[in-house]
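Q: Sequence in, structure out?
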Amino acid sequence: MNVLTILKDFTYRCESIFENTTTSMSKRFLSWLILTIRTVALLPGKINFTRLSRYGGRTAKTFASNFKASVDWIKVNTGIARENFGCGDDVAIAIDPSFISTSGRLTYGMGRFWSGVAQRVKRGLEIMAIGAISLSRHTCVMLGAIQSPDFRTLESEQNMSMLDWYIFLVRSKASELLSLTDILVADAFFSKYKFVNETVAMGFRFVGRLRANSYLRYLAIPDPSAPRRRGRKKKYGENVDFSSLDMSVFTSFIYEDSKGIKTRCLTAVVHSRALKRDIRILVCPVENGGLLLYFSTDTDMRPEKIIGFYRTRFQI
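A: Exactly. Output:
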């Protein structure tokens, strides 16, 4: 297959994807957009309007003016993900705030954000990355990246915390995301009552991770032989002690990851006091002797899928 054949196939695929999305684009803008994407894919090294003009056959002014046009890229990329992955329980939405190290004083959004790599708060920028992950293909299609304002701006101008900002972002894109899947995956930072409760109210099933010292309780199992008493029936049993789990409640299963490594894990439906709801919890041992706690607000979700979605989240 020669280069011209590849370019024709690439152009045809782009046209098919953009025409099948719900985002309305004029034919003139669509032809320019496909030309730009094709030129960017071919150009090595740094890309600017001058180089696009040199290899794209349009003036630098044309490229600059069209770049100012507003496009709902999440709708476009959702169409791409739907064409590649389809819809259903094999697909989930993954979100992850990403720190960008940069210097400067006048750049919008400059502030202090958490850096997962450095494991501390650093000065720079942050984007909220949103992607669609496929469990069977173990890959991700990026849907969008939205820059976060610094917390001082949020507090002073909008009276919001960073968690409120993340909830606002998910709510603003909920209709497009729910058209693809209703499973939302995020790391342990988002396993808070406010975020989980808000996203569940939007229609999502949340998959995340809990701390090893989380306060969980067994569900009370009614005893039919016990005498009837006045008052409300007991809803919860004893606290979950992870050093001595009740094996009459927990069931074991073998999880095999994409590399063929097998791990014996335990699962049960328990009550989370912090989240104020029943959840399906998964207890998985790690090499250092500790435990990883995965959970889902959907108590009927298969435990293999809960671990699979959370680990596939890293493909973002």
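Residues 210-223+231-315 form one domain.
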